[in-house]
Amino acid sequence: MAAKSKARTIIVRLISTAQTGFFYTTQRLRQGPKLSAVKYDPKVQARVLFVESKKTKKG
Fold first, then answer.
1. What residue intervals traverse the membrane (predicted)?
2. Is the pTM above the cut of 0.70?
3. What is the DSSP secondary-structure string of 24-38?
């Protein structure tokens, strides 16, 4: 039986650098660079930098 291949994309969290705990969830290519983006954080009502961290499973 052949081994299961890995998916091309992975799910990641973009976490606010304002340390509010707010995050966006998105997909990116497994081989691609780490994501960072300036997006809106409703807890501080401003656009702030969001950086990638791996999506963890609830457990």
1. none
2. yes
3. EEEEEETTSPPPEEE
